[in-house]
């Protein structure tokens, strides 16, 4: 007891002592000037007092500053592009400082890897560090800035709908046809989504591509890893950064459709050309053309009517950071409001039916030095995303906008009744967009993490412990409030009094509601021991990491016990590094993973990887002879990683059900006395496990001419084995009752390269940087669940994952003689002007055995980007082009095949403007559209090279111009620096395919178009 | 230098605001009629065509008409036409029924309140044409209807399926299948209900047939009996009693139709199981009419059939679904002979105009014999007009066996449907919805057609 009192007293004394010390400090006013080496005065240099909170001050445009401080405090002079300098205040009250320009050297660049930051020069694996200044997107998701900017990433955006407009992306392409192809995304070491992250919060962004960097993630790393760390507070004066952007979004491509008269004429052509009677008499065509009957022949351009010219997006963010050596903080908040493109009803006051997305983000990262050797980091972040949508679903709206022809129905009949062809996608687009209620999806994410770093130099020098705990919750809620008015459709002609005869096509729906919610919880616990040691020229490092994770989602699983069980992972990982004289490096990484999803004996696996690097530039003879060579490092890595994405929970457990057909019939006089038998409803296998990737990576990092020219190139070779798939061709004699068992049987091989290059040049005050990146990947299925075939081209193996397959078209039939002399096409009757196919197997018959792999895949296999940025005085500008290639897709559906579904399906202007086969007028066998047919032609409308389109494109992805408002001006309003900028996104797109945006890879164009955006923004730094 | 920078900032701000307030293009929804008043003086050039029948589209050419059809009135003589649309340079209107020839007058009211009137010097010549029209019947907004009596504007039908024309009083008897028999008085243009289910022991009324001398109306009833002869199968009422009283004619299981021989007046009727065709014969023991089964048609199917005697009494057509049988009348035994398949097929249904058994019918219902002047002097001078319910058309069967389509299935629509409610040219425009009843006024040359789905009585006549 006495002891405790003593301690308390001691503690009190220390506090008072401290206080007394502070009080004894002499307040002084320090003045001085800040100049650079060239003796030019520096304006805007922040001058702060070390470890004292507050804003500090900044030098004026003559480089002078004044600050109040106390003696024996440290003054800190900091400015971007210069090395920080600290000066102790002694007796001299005038302190002049010469700041040294920061030395930027490729050698010293730091790369964030799985187990912490590492100097670029010592890295042996393939890592892309993303230049954050190049990630520019006016949308709510940074995934849209990845394509063409980040070496090793293939990305594709398939919708422009606010809140759903993120890009899908794959690291080094898709290399499996198993369940999961997406990368593992880690934010501050925890598995989190990339879409909600505000770009201003990101400190570092790296992509881990090869086995050596991902092996420690073991069974989860095969699809690559994205590592993001968020910003932390710095020991500096408080800095406040604000940003506001206003974007005006239009569309890159809007599919264009013909007017009513052209539509009716084409419809008649489609009838006449197949010897059927036309639908519209010349008199009716006259009425359509002159728009004399807006009820029966309305002539509506649906796309134009219901899509606005453009919509606005507002985005703001504000963050603060600061702190002293005891604690530092970074606090940020951001807001985005993406406006929808639909032309909605302005009169609706109580709710909105447009497709809007609003998101609020916040983040607080606080670092506390608990003791001299203990650092505690606490991070809290969260987001609330609200997506508002019209009451008609996305598919219904787009199917309706492109399905309704210009003359079938008006929006409303002149007596005020709502026109409709029925429900769902047959509904009037006006009803779907404005009259059918609305859908609200909201997503709430809350992420908490605590990290404890303990320096254990006490035990042995270079030893450090890091412990992490993270706890994330996600909630998704969906509510749909739906109603619609009764719909009517007019008879084909008016009655004898000239009045419309209306038939009701859909009865009124009063307000109904549907709702759904799901949520999950994710917990991670991690402990790491780091050890670093340098013995003369030898540097040694080792990290051992233990992780356990569990994820559970208990919503909507009802009585399903298997789904209610937490999904758990366990992992022991480690890394050992050895370096010699910053020339030779050798790494060994491993992950020893466990998952409870598999049977005992298959739950754990070891994923090792080795890698080595040789920095030739550090060799003596190079250093002496080739002084321009700053870095020339060759790397090679080899190892194993896994992919445990699995569509089935507990694949080793079978499930059973009863079946009357397999029962026992103890027939009695009055009753059948039937006892149903038990049967498998899912066949299990004990030996199911994860798929394994064996990866090789040969890389080169280089930097020449004083780091003016640098880059990174990687060649990769990756084989996936044990891809989990259904076995569909097990003979019936095995007795599996038509149940397809699953097994790890698939195998693929993918090869490719990725790289990036950078060139900087300074001409007087103009500095230029040119950049380029490229990622190419080609894969091949080695083994898949194929049945025996006489034709090797019908198997999956030997071709790409997701390979397009179809018939080979030889153009159109010239005449009946041509049809007679060609192979018989077994898809219905053919006439001149119909598509002629190639008889691949030579059996004189065109059928499904003539389907061969054609083109590439729907997803891009090549992504590249290049651009240039320039800085001149206060101005900066940059241009960035992005392209994709080696991909193709089939176009189909009622918008592409004219009249394939009768009068459902609008006709693209391309049908009229392009070279179309017309009986007696244009019988070109190479025409772009075959002979029209009403109600579809089974022969023409098949997947074939005729309808295969290249989706390669090149686009001016971003163009931006910025102007840094001069300090003299900003200072007067109390602002440290401000930049005004304008940015254009997707301004130009070059592609052979022009019907809709080729990046969307949509087969029928029925998707919310991608945005072409002009953004104006202002950043303010206090 | 400083000033220059300031200007630049001002300029940038101006640009920002310029883009922020970039105004969207105005779009006018087709739902709202743009009531823009004609700007200049209204000019009238001409109208076309100069001649036409009912439903002819009439165009008036000129300029500055305005778009608001409510402000435009067009007359032919005194008859006002329906103005459907106007695009400023053309006015589109339709010639209604019962129009007579006359001068075309256009009246356009201007926003100022005054109106412009123009009478074209040329006269519009109204031409007569055969057209499908609507006699009576109506439905509410939801397409529903019920048995409502009254004049032709008010009256409604619930399920008109069968129709008989009575020439003496110029009236129609319309059987609302399973419900009632209605009387349509063509003189007073009123509809009344003659008898409904439940009255006089009727269970499900099927058809009405007039005797050859047109003074007796026979009514058949599906009395739901399969074997027992306890209920009335055929009843009759007399013109002399203004059809108000119903007398039992024959007790038997359910009957669907009956046909008295036009000369001998023997009654033939059909029953259910196996579609037995029966003859009513007098039973002296019971002192009443009793059944005599003659033959069965269509094997053992339980489809119903309908019997129609040729006006000469030489033969009868027995209509059952996709098939029309021909049964000759034996003048000595005074009985119908077992029939032959004359047109269509009892198994294969469809919609093909062809001869005899190669023709395809979907669901033949009521038919009527109509004298064809082209056949004058031939053995058989009559065509048989019948309703093909599911093919939504009125078809004819010539004495030679040729089946052809007479009316319906007009106005082809892109959706491929055949049914609908459209008047006009019988083949090119008109559409029916489940027509099953047909009758013919020989004197005025008007067909009356009962449609189950449109719930209307339609006409085919020269207007």
TrEMBL record, chain A:
Keyword Coiled coil: no
Cellular compartments annotated: Cell outer membrane
Membrane topology: Multi-pass membrane protein
Gene3D superfamilies per UniProt: TonB-dependent receptor, plug domain
Domain TonB-dependent receptor plug residues, every copy: 120-225
Cellular component GO terms, alphabetical: cell outer membrane
Taxonomy, superkingdom: Bacteria
First and last residue of the signal peptide: 1-20
Keyword Membrane listed: yes
Family assignment from sequence similarity: Belongs to the TonB-dependent receptor family.
NCBIfam families linked: OMP_RagA_SusC, SusC_RagA_signa
Name of this chain's protein: SusC/RagA family protein
Lineage: Bacteria, Pseudomonadati, Bacteroidota, Sphingobacteriia, Sphingobacteriales
Automatic annotation (TrEMBL), chain B:
One family name in Pfam for this protein: TIG
Membrane spanning residue stretches: 7-23
Segments for region (Disordered): 408-428
Keyword Magnesium: no
Key words of the record: Membrane, Transmembrane, Transmembrane helix
Limits of the IPT/TIG domain: 45-112
Top-level taxon: Bacteria
Gene3D superfamilies noted in UniProt: Immunoglobulins, TolB, C-terminal domain
PROSITE patterns: PROKAR_LIPOPROTEIN (PS51257)
Name of this protein: IPT/TIG domain-containing protein
Species the sequence originates in: Sphingobacterium athyrii
């Amino acid at each position: 007891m006495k002891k405790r009192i003593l301690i308390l007293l001691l503690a009190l004394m220390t506090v008072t002592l401290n206080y007394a010390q502070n009080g004894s400090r002499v307040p002084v006013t320090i003045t001085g000037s800040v100049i650079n080496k060239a003796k030019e005065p520096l304006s805007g240099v922040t001058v702060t007092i070390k470890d004292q909170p507050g804003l500090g001050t900044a030098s004026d445009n003559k480089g002078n500053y004044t600050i109040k401080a106390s003696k024996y405090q440290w003054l800190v002079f900091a400015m971007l592009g210069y090395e920080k300098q600290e000066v102790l205040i002694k007796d001299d009250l005038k302190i002049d400082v010469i700041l040294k320009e920061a030395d930027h050297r490729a050698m010293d660049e730091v790369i964030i890897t799985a187990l912490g930051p590492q100097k670029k020069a010592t890295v042996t694996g393939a890592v892309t560090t993303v230049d954050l200044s190049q990630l520019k997107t006016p949308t709510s998701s940074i995934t849209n800035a990845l394509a063409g900017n980040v070496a090793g990433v293939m990305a594709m955006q398939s919708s422009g709908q606010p809140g759903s407009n993120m890009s899908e992306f794959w690291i080094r392409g898709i290399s499996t046809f198993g369940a999961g192809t997406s990368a593992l995304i880690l934010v501050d070491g925890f598995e989190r989504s990339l879409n909600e992250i505000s770009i201003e919060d990101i400190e570092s962004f790296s992509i881990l591509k090869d086995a050596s960097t991902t092996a420690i993630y073991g069974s989860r790393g095969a699809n690559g890893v994205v590592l993001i760390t968020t910003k932390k507070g710095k020991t500096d004066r408080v800095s406040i950064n604000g940003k506001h952007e206003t974007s005006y979004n239009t569309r890159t491509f809007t599919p264009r459709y013909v007017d009513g008269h052209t539509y009716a004429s084409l419809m008649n052509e489609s009838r006449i050309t197949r010897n059927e009677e036309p639908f519209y008499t010349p008199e009716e065509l006259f009425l359509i053309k002159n728009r004399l009957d807006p009820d029966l022949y309305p002539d509506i351009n649906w796309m134009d009517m219901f899509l606005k010219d453009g919509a606005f997006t507002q985005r703001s963010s504000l963050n603060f950071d600061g702190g002293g050596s005891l604690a530092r903080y970074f606090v940020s908040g951001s807001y985005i409001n993406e406006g929808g493109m639909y032309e909605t009803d302005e009169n609706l006051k109580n709710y909105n039916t447009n497709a809007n997305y609003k998101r609020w983000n916040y983040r607080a990262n606080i670092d506390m030095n608990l003791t001299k050797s203990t650092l505690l980091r606490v991070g809290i972040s969260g987001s609330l995303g609200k997506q508002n949508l019209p009451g008609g679903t996305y598919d219904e709206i787009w199917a309706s906008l492109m399905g309704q022809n210009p003359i079938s129905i008006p929006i409303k009949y002149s007596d005020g009744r709502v026109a409709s062809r029925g429900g769902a996608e047959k509904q009037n687009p006006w009803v779907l967009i404005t009259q059918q209620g609305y859908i609200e999806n909201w997503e709430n994410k809350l992420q908490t993490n605590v990290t404890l770093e303990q320096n254990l130099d006490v035990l042995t020098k270079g030893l450090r412990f890091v412990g992490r705990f993270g706890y994330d919750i996600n909630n998704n809620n969906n509510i749909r409030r739906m109603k619609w008015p009764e719909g009517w459709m007019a008879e084909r002609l008016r009655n004898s009094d000239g009045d419309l005869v209306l038939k009701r096509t859909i009865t009124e729906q009063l307000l109904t509601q549907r709702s759904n919610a799901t949520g999950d919880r994710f917990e991670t616990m991690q402990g790491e021991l780091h050890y670093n040691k340098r013995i003369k020229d030898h540097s040694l490092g080792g990290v051992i990491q233990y992780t356990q994770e569990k994820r559970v989602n208990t919503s909507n699983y009802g009585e399903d016990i298997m789904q209610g069980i937490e999904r758990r992972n366990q992992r022991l990982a480690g890394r050992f590094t050895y370096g010699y004289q910053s020339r030779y490096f050798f790494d060994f990484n491993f992950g020893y993973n466990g998952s409870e999803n598999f049977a005992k004996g298959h739950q754990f696996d070891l994923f090792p990887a080795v890698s080595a690097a040789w920095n030739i530039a550090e060799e003596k003879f190079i250093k002496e002879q080739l002084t321009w060579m700053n870095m020339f490092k060759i790397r090679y890595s080899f190892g194993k990683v896994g992919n445990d994405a699995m569509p089935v929970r507990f694949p080793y457990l079978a499930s059973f059900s009863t079946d009357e057909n397999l029962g026992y019939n103890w027939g009695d006089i009055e009753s059948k006395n039937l006892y149903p038998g038990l049967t498998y409803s899912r066949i299990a296998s004990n030996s199911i496990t994860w798929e394994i990737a064996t990866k090789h990576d040969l890389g080169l990092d280089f930097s020449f001419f004083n780091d003016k020219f640098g880059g990174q190139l990687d060649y990769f070779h990756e084989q996936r084995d044990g891809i989990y798939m259904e076995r569909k061709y097990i003979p019936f004699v095995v007795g599996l009752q038509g149940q397809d068992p699953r097994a790890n049987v698939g195998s693929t091989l993918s090869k490719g390269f990725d790289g990036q290059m950078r060139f900087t040049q300074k001409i007087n005050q103009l500095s230029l940087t040119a950049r380029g990146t490229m990622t190419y990947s080609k894969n091949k299925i080695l083994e898949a669940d194929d049945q025996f075939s006489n034709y090797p081209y019908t198997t999956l193996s030997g071709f790409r994952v997701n390979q397009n397959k179809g018939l080979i078209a030889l153009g159109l039939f010239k005449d009946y003689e041509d049809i007679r002399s060609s192979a018989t096409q077994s898809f219905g009757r053919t006439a001149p002007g119909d598509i002629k196919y190639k008889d691949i197997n030579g059996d004189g018959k065109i059928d499904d055995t003539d389907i061969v792999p054609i083109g590439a895949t729907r997803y891009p296999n090549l992504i590249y980007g290049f651009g240039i940025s320039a800085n001149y005085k206060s101005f900066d500008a940059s241009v960035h082009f992005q392209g994709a290639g080696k991909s193709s897709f089939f176009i189909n559906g009622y918008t592409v095949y004219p009249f394939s579904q009768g009068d459902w399906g609008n006709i693209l202007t391309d049908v009229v403007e392009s070279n179309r086969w017309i009986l007696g007028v244009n019988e070109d066998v190479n025409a772009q559209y075959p002979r029209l047919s009403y109600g579809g032609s089974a022969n023409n409308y098949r997947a074939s090279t005729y309808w295969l389109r290249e989706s390669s494109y090149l686009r001016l992805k971003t163009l931006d111009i910025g102007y840094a408002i001069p300090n003299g001006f900003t200072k007067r309003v109390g602002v440290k620096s401000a930049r005004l900028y304008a940015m254009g996104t997707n301004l130009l797109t070059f592609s052979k395919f022009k019907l809709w945006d080729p990046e969307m890879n949509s087969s029928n164009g029925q998707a919310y178009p991608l945005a072409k955006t002009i953004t104006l923004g202002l950043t303010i730094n206090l | 230098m400083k000033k220059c920078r300031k200007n630049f900032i001002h300029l940038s701000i101006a640009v920002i605001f310029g883009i922020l307030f970039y105004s969207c293009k105005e779009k006018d929804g087709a739902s709202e009629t743009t009531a823009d008043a004609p700007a200049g003086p209204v000019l009238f050039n001409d109208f076309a065509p100069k001649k036409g029948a009912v439903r002819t589209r009439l165009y008036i050419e000129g300029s500055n008409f305005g778009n608001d059809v409510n402000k435009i009135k067009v007359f032919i003589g005194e008859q006002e036409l329906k103005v459907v649309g106007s695009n400023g340079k053309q006015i589109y209107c339709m010639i209604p029924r019962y129009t007579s020839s006359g001068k075309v007058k256009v009246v356009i009211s201007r926003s100022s309140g005054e109106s412009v009137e123009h009478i074209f010097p040329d006269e519009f010549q109204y031409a007569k044409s055969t057209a499908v029209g609507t006699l009576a019947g109506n439905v509410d907004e939801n397409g529903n209807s019920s048995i409502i009596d009254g004049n032709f504007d008010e009256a409604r039908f619930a399920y008109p399926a069968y129709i008989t024309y009575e020439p003496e009083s110029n009236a129609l008897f319309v059987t609302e299948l399973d419900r009632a028999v209605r009387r349509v008085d063509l003189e007073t243009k009123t509809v009344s209900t003659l008898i409904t289910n439940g009255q006089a022991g009727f269970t499900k009324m099927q058809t009405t047939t007039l005797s050859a001398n047109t003074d007796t109306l026979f009514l058949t009833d599906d009395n739901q009996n399969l074997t027992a002869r306890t209920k009335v199968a055929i009843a009759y009422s007399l013109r002399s009693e203004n059809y108000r009283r119903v007398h039992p004619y024959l007790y038997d299981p359910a009957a669907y139709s009956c046909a008295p021989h036009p000369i001998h007046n023997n009654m033939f009727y059909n029953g259910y199981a196996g579609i037995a065709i029966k003859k009513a014969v007098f039973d002296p023991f019971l002192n009443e009419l009793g059944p005599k089964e003659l033959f069965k048609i269509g094997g053992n199917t339980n489809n119903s059939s309908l019997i129609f005697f040729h006006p000469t009494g030489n033969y009868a057509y027995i209509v059952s679904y996709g098939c029309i049988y021909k049964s000759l009348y034996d003048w000595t035994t005074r009985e119908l002979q077992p029939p032959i398949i004359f047109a269509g097929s009892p198994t294969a249904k469809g919609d093909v105009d062809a001869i005899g058994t190669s023709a395809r019918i979907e669901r033949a219902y009521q038919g009527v014999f109509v004298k064809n002047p082209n056949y004058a002097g031939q053995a058989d001078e009559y065509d048989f007009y019948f309703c093909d319910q599911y093919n939504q058309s009125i078809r004819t069967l010539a004495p030679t066996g040729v089946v052809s389509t007479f009316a319906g299935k007009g106005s082809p629509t892109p959706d491929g449907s055949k049914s609908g409610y459209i008047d006009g040219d019988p083949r090119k425009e008109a559409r029916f919805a489940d027509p099953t009843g047909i009758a013919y006024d020989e004197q005025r040359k008007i067909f009356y057609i009962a449609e189950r789905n449109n719930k209307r009585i339609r006409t085919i006549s020269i207007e």
